[in-house]
Amino acid sequence: MAAAPCSIAPSSKVKSTPPRATNLSVQHVVFGDVLFKTWYPSYYPEELVGRDLDRLYKSCHARGSIPPGQLIYSKKEHAIYEVDGEEHQLFCQNLSLFAKLFLDNKSVFFDVASFNFYLLVQNVPTEPRVKPQPQIIGFFSKEKMSWDNNNLACILVFPPWQRKGLGKILMGLSYELSKLEGCIGGPEKPLSELGRIGYLKFWQARVASAILGLKNRSTLGVEEIADACWMLPEDVITTLKEMDVLGTKKKKNDGSVVLNKARVREWLAESKVDLIAPVDEDGFAEDCLIDGDT
Length: 294
Known about the structure:
Number of helices: 7
Helix content: 25-40%
Order of helices and strands: EEHEEEHEEEEHEHEHHEH
Structural class: alpha+beta
Number of strands: 12
Shape: globular
């Protein structure tokens, strides 16, 4: 069963957080050593948290605990663990219930067996010359089998770590997984408004990098760009329109679109988007075949 469309955590340039709901059963979360407010009600049993709990302590996600699952990526201070929802059912159910405190539209909490969860972990140095302690700071979920080739169902960077550009690491990993599987995909739709903002910024950098990397070419097919980015053609078209870099000439007979590369460079200078890929293939574990080879 597919997860319902869910909100995406605000990106680094979103100025405000969503207004808090008035029917909150949990007011605050103590996450490791960080205290922060919740945004939406979740479906914790009343006999567990009551009707109006001031602070929910999440010790299972506390700093220093070793995340479950398999380490698949590690680069500098960040790592990503893949967790099977069937093997670690209770953990993933708790994670989903916790995420609902910050996501307006999320409906999958208990039927987690058909999903994999990808935990974004930050290795936090506590003291000089002391081994950094792992802290889970976000995640995304992905259906094990998606008939729509969705490479991401739900994504969230926890509030204290939002607006730091960390969401694009999770987005980038979802596309690397598509590449590994040899299947072009994209996030589950429809996207929320915050989700659309976050993905457009991510797609724009991805598409611009691909276009500028193809030298001495003024026309490119949408399918060609999609293949280079491992993106769905409709997402490429949406991105090109949003960037306003299409030429004034009509499409070629072969379906290629006329691109104004000068306009792409102008857009890049104006937007100041970083074209450095958020996920480095060198950071993957040896048994993760990023090039799709078997």
